[in-house]
UniProtKB/TrEMBL annotation:
<feature type="transmembrane region" description="Helical">
    <location>
        <begin position="42"/>
        <end position="64"/>
    </location>
</feature>
<dbReference type="Pfam" id="PF02653">
    <property type="entry name" value="BPD_transp_2"/>
</dbReference>
<dbReference type="GO" id="GO:0006865">
    <property type="term" value="P:amino acid transport"/>
</dbReference>
<protein>
    <submittedName>
        <fullName>Amino acid/amide ABC transporter membrane protein 1 (HAAT family)</fullName>
    </submittedName>
</protein>
<comment type="similarity">
    <text>Belongs to the binding-protein-dependent transport system permease family. LivHM subfamily.</text>
</comment>
<feature type="transmembrane region" description="Helical">
    <location>
        <begin position="98"/>
        <end position="123"/>
    </location>
</feature>
<keyword id="KW-1133">Transmembrane helix</keyword>
<keyword id="KW-0813">Transport</keyword>
<feature type="transmembrane region" description="Helical">
    <location>
        <begin position="190"/>
        <end position="216"/>
    </location>
</feature>
<feature type="transmembrane region" description="Helical">
    <location>
        <begin position="307"/>
        <end position="328"/>
    </location>
</feature>
<feature type="transmembrane region" description="Helical">
    <location>
        <begin position="16"/>
        <end position="35"/>
    </location>
</feature>
<feature type="transmembrane region" description="Helical">
    <location>
        <begin position="270"/>
        <end position="295"/>
    </location>
</feature>
<dbReference type="GO" id="GO:0022857">
    <property type="term" value="F:transmembrane transporter activity"/>
</dbReference>
<feature type="transmembrane region" description="Helical">
    <location>
        <begin position="237"/>
        <end position="258"/>
    </location>
</feature>
<keyword id="KW-0472">Membrane</keyword>
<dbReference type="InterPro" id="IPR052157">
    <property type="entry name" value="BCAA_transport_permease"/>
</dbReference>
<keyword id="KW-0812">Transmembrane</keyword>
Amino acid sequence: MDAIILQILNGLDKGSAYALIALGLTLIFGTLGVVNFAHGALFMIGAFCAVTLSRILTFSHTIIDESRTDFLGNPLKVQVPYVQDFFGEAAGATIIDWAVPLSILFAIPVMILVGVVMERGLIKHFYKRPHADQILVTFGLAIVLQEIIKYFFGANPIPTPAPDAFRGSFDFGVLLGFEANQIIYPYWRLVYFAFAAVIIGGVFAFLQFTTFGMVVRAGMADRETVQLLGINIDKRFTIMFGVAAAVAGLAGVMYVPINPPNYHMGMDFLVLSFVVVVVGGMGSLPGAVLAGFLLGILESFASMKEVIDLVPGINQIIIYLVAILILLTRPRGLMGRKGVMED
């Protein structure tokens, strides 16, 4: 039982990333009808927003520390971050330690700007073009963005730790009545799942309970009628593209302590996220979230040693096998809508 609970936790962790990226993908497809193969690059850019802020906060200058000497008796040269000069040593150290959570505030405007520029500068010209054209141009854009990140940050992963308060592991089993040290799980992975739940809930609440969201949902259902009412639905859809970019970016920001970011991490998640979207149903936001967590949990169980010993390599293909089975029995996916991508 403890192994099953641990794999469920691992699945929720993976599923959180899949669900957040797939949610953004579905927002873009549902509003604009665009198959955006550059969405994984937005996840990557969000991750490097965290890296960038971490580097900015650790910019430092050299001072001579007379109280400390080297082995020759000379005063030591010490690197002091500018943030400690501005806020004091203790406060500055705390700000540096919390660089990843603070990156959320940095990433939101950056990702919205990137999304709006991407939509207005390129994607708007492909609204009425075939989906194959959209895939090619956005895939090309993803490669360009990937190479830009590689040029500025290098090809190697960049470790970006979580705050000290969330390092280490939590004895999850004690809460469930197990003996101590039976179900140990990293704090930050639990934080990531909770963060994903908040973001997903916030997006659904925004679409469901705000006037802006209601207009967007109406536009997703019948764009022409909304335009006939005198509403500039294109402007709202552009904003939603920015929101979708922010969702993907925030998923990347909070993921960096789990997996050190590198320039190809967007591509690593992109294909899996599209499988999630297709399994959930093209254009279905609840379907994207449901499929994300479902496939994350299945992949986690398929990664167990007992399963791999029984069926070698199953952890690499389980998501695709499940996708095939679901699409054979439910061609529109779990919660797909009639008419979406069926013309």
